[in-house]
Specification:
pyruvate-formate lyase- activating enzyme; 12 helices; 3-stranded mixed beta sheet; binds iron/sulfur cluster; 6-stranded parallel beta sheet; 11 strands; alpha/beta
Length: 293
């Protein structure tokens, strides 16, 4: 872990990453890609120690409130968060200034902050996105070694939902030849049915690989599934989107399963929903266009 006095904490799109680098260890991890220019060992997490103070300054000076997006480049609930509580301090500011929140995590540590999440969702929109890509605990421990167990993620989402937080399951990544079978997807859908989230994110059955993330992925594949990297190389070469041969059959199955149960699956609508600010106390809603303007 390296502490850093950062200059900014919010991106122009209102994304926030208090931590850079990540210790969850997902074998398929886009933030490892070279294009993001992370210098050094990805597991050696850089901590923006002045992040909460910077966030408060930014929120205080904003002309309009909006959604703050957290967790796109690193899980915000790193183990070190237990002690540092930087995310918790940020949630305090988000709540105090009446902003909305969309947070993605694979950690059940998020439940420590249930009080703030509940308070944020009473004033504005509070969304928690949690990935699920298998129902098998043993496989999950290989694919996402330091993430919360599958059962714990399901229970965490159920608890968040009961507290009034909007829950979204991000289904994937589904790695071709590994967890892209019909049976695997059906098992994940059963978990989704148990949670009954607001929506499910899933663009396709497959995964994304590019320079930097591909090398790490291949190394991990060969460790856990000997010979698999060669199979990937032959099937996908340097393609960014590695789409499963089951994609065409399984996507309609997912769509009809979710639609029948009233779970939002329109990917465009979900993305717009996560970015659209809503003031629940005044009923004010800002569209994406208004936020960007
Ligand atoms: S939680 Fe995200 S950033 Fe961390 S290892 Fe997994 S995919 Fe990468």
């Amino acid at each position: 872990m390296r502490e850093k006095e950062a200059k900014t904490v919010l991106t122009p799109q209102n994304g926030m990453n208090i931590y850079r680098g990540c210790t969850v260890g997902c074998i398929c991890c886009d933030p490892r890609s070279k294009c993001y220019r992370f210098a050094g060992d990805f597991e050696d997490v850089e901590v923006k120690i002045n992040g909460p103070a910077l966030l408060e300054k930014s929120l205080n000076s904003k002309r309009r409130r909006c959604m703050i997006g957290v967790g796109s480049m690193s899980d915000p609930y790193q183990p070190v968060e237990k002690e540092l509580q930087l995310m918790r301090k940020c949630l305090h500011h988000i709540h105090y200034y009446g902003f909305g929140l969309a947070v993605e995590t694979r950690s059940d540590l998020i439940l420590r902050d249930l009080d703030y999440l509940k308070n944020i969702s009473e004033k504005a929109k509070c969304v928690c996105i949690m990935p699920l890509n298998t129902a098998e605990e043993a496989l999950s421990a290989i694919l996402e070694p330091s993430a919360a167990s599958v059962r714990s993620r399901v229970e965490t989402l159920k608890t968040l939902k009961a507290a009034g937080v909007t829950t979204i399951v991000s289904m994937g990544p589904f790695l071709p030849f590994i967890n892209d079978s019909k049976e695997t997807i059906q098992e994940v859908l059963k978990l989704v049915e148990e949670i009954m989230p607001f929506g499910v994110l899933c663009k396709f059955i497959g995964c994304k690989l590019r320079d930097g993330s591909r090398e790490y992925f291949y190394e991990m594949l060969d460790k856990h599934f000997p010979g698999m990297s060669k199979r990937y190389d032959e099937a996908f070469g340097k393609e960014f989107d590695c789409i499963s041969e089951n994609n065409q059959e399984l996507m309609p199955m997912i769509r009809s399963f979710l639609t029948e149960r009233g779970i939002q699956f329109d990917q465009e609508r979900l993305r717009t929903f996560m970015k659209g600010f809503e003031d629940k106390l005044t009923g004010e809603q800002l569209s994406l266009e208004e936020i960007i303007a």
